[in-house]
Amino acid sequence: MIQKNTVIILGAGASKPYNFPLGVELRDEIIKIGANDRGLEATFFSQITGFDSGYLYKFTTDLSKSGYSSVDAFLENRPEWIEIGKHTIAHKLFFYEKNAKLFPPEQPKDHWYETLWHNMMAPTWEEFKLNKLQIITFNYDRSLEHYLSTILSNNYNISKEEIIPSLPIIHVHGDLGSYKNYGNHSFENIKFAVSSIKIVHESNNSTKEFKLADKIIENAKSILFIGFGYHIQNLIKFKLFKSYYENPSLALRHQYNNLLGTHRGIKSKAWTKICGRFNFSREAKNQGGGSISEFLSESLDLD
Q: Cα–Cα distance between 303 and 301 in angstroms, integer?
């Protein structure tokens, strides 16, 4: 069990082992739908959402020529496309919510959900809830909730309906709607997802989700970033990291004896700069460059 107040902050890379696309990959997949506006997927999208295929084509053409590396960033600066943009995001992500990808025999090589579960295991459901862990995610998908609720339901013989509200997971940018709709691609579920998804400017640090996240971070003794891009505009949404960014000397007095993050794919110079500005733990340079499972196994054991 996790005995120390720990916060895990998830970025897009955290869902990548489970076959979910990164920002640039999702952008390209959405562009492909509109490029073939008479293809099967474009026709299906139009039928299920009500958007005319010609309008879809205009949106994806505009997106492809915008120079933005993610749909979210494009919509942040082009609000006239927000409604159809959210529909395309929900449409694509529902296809990736696959039960089989989370469990043997089709589980990923870097099955960090299982590693997390092994660190949280307890003899009973009541004891499991004593784990001192909170998870803050920037992702829309509910794959972690689906994995944990399935495992917990199976091991403790209780319903998912009882488990879901107790899972310590906060989606600061919204999610794909009610968990009961996991992977269920329909008009109603896309509609719910669109109402829940928050584009960047809709999820500033004054929302209830970010206020709760700030409280959780303030009480943490250990903060672990997983699959995070460390973009300043995302980091400074948290009150603590905004303070560090505006006054780096404050970071020297932070209370965490364990501030670490995964950094595979981030160049050494950039990672050193991030670690220095936010005063990551000394171990941060040597941990987090491999798989997420390895990172969790090492980091959750630190005292």
A: 6
